[in-house]
Amino acid sequence: MRMTVVLLILCLSPILVVSQNTISGEVIDELGLPIYAAAISIVGTETTVYTNFEGEFTLNSDKKFHWKINISSKGYEEEAFFVLDGGKTEPIVLQYDAAMRKMIEGKAYLRKPWTTPPLFPSLPLELTYHYNTQLPLLARGGFE
What we know:
It comes from Croceitalea dokdonensis DOKDO 023. The protein is α/β, with parallel strands linked by helices. It has helices at 2-17, 98-104, 125-132, and strands spanning 21-28, 39-42, 48-50, 56-61, 67-72, 79-83, 87-88, 92-93. The strands form two sheets. Strands 1, 4, 7 and 8 form a four-stranded mixed beta sheet that branches. Residues 125-133 and 135-144 have low confidence and may be disordered.
């Protein structure tokens, strides 16, 4: 009997000592698409987690609730929320930042388009056209 009580106490003591507070949720963009690798961190701690491919995350901490969390991802405006208790949150929607909006609207490029070929700046216009379409150049100067 004594052995049973000792084993029961040893098994339950880690559960009683380690009480972690947990929240989980999903981070999406304005179109409802999941955001991969968005960082969710608790302000004032070094606890940071990242969303998976479906935009889902689970955040655990020993800190008592009434957390302030920051959510950030490249191309989106940073958001901050207060968490008063654990459980599953509603989907968190991040808004596009100004640079991402310009790119979506077609007013920005990822990189600058070529105006002349970098290796042959003095080629005639018709050769420049073929060079930009990436047709292979033959050894004697013709095109296939």
